[in-house]
Amino acid sequence: MSVVGIKEVVRRIKEEELITGLDGRDLSNPEGTGIDLRLGCAHKIVEGGAYIEADGAAGLGKRKGVKTEEVCKLKEGDVQDDLVIAPGEYYLVQTAETVNTPLDLMPMVYPRSSLFRAGLLFLATKTDPGYKGQLTFGLTNLSAFPVRLQLGARICNIVFHKIEGDVIGYRGQHQGGRFSHGEEQQV
Question: Any residues with CB less than 8 A from the CB of 3 and at least 6 apart, and which?
Fold first, then answer.
C-alpha cells in the first residue's frame, strides 16, 4: 500500500468529490501529502451504558451506543464559537468536511501537532473504503489547563493510501457520519 501524492489527491477532490466542504486553502496552497480537515461540531456524552457484545453462535453481536448532545457547531460566516475543553473532558468531534471514499483508497487521519502541543489527545482510526460522510473522532484534554478550539480550526490531516487487491466496502452503522446509536445488531 502506498501513499497517494498531493497532486493526485487534489485532482480527485476536484474531479471525483473525494472530499467536499473544504475551506479552499488546501486546494489553492496544499503541502505535504495530506489535506487538513476542520472542526465542524462537538458532542458531549450525556448518558453512558455502551456495550459491545462478542460474536456468538447466533451471529454478530449486539452493540449499544452512548447518548450524546451537540454542544457547538460550525456556522455560516466568519464569527465562530469556541469549544472550551476543560482538563479531563472528553468530546466526540466531527469534521466540517465530508469524505467520499472510493474502493481503491483507505484514508488515515492524523492530529495536527498544535493539538498535542496544547495538551489535547486526538483519537482517530482508519477509514474504510466505501465510507461516505463526516469523520468523527475522540478529543480529550490531558493538560491541567483549559484549551479553546474555535469552530472551523484545522484539527487533523487526512492522508490517502492506495489499495491493491480486493476490498469489501464499508457497510457499518456509522455510514454518513452518525454520532451515536441505540441498541442494534452489528453489521
Answer: 33, 159, 160, 161, 162
Alpha-carbon distance 109 to 103, whole Å?
17
pTM reported for the whole predicted model: 0.91
Give the separation between CA 60 and CA 183, rounded to whole angstroms.
13
CA gap 152, 74 in Å, rounded: 6
CA 160 to chain centre: 14
> What would the pLDDT profile of 58-78 be if each residue is shown by its tens digit?
777 787 888 999 999 999 888
**Which 3 state secondary structure label does DSSP give 176?**
coil
> Residue 181: what pLDDT?
62
In which residue ranges of the chain is pLDDT below 70? Answer: 178-187
d(CA 150, CA 13) in angstroms, rounded, equals 25
Q: Give the pLDDT score at 53.
A: 81
Give all domains of the chain, ordered by start, each with its CATH number: 2-48+61-180 (2.70.40.10)
Half-sphere exposure of 149 (CA within 13 A, CB side): 32
* Amino acid at site 185: Q
d(CA 146, CA 87): 6
Cβ burial 93-127 (10 Å sphere, 16+ → b, else e): bbbbbbbebbeebbbebebbeebeeebbebebeeb
- Read off the C-alpha cell for 124: 482517530
Report how far residue 39's alpha carbon sits from residue 114's, in angstroms, rounded to the nearest whole number. Answer: 13
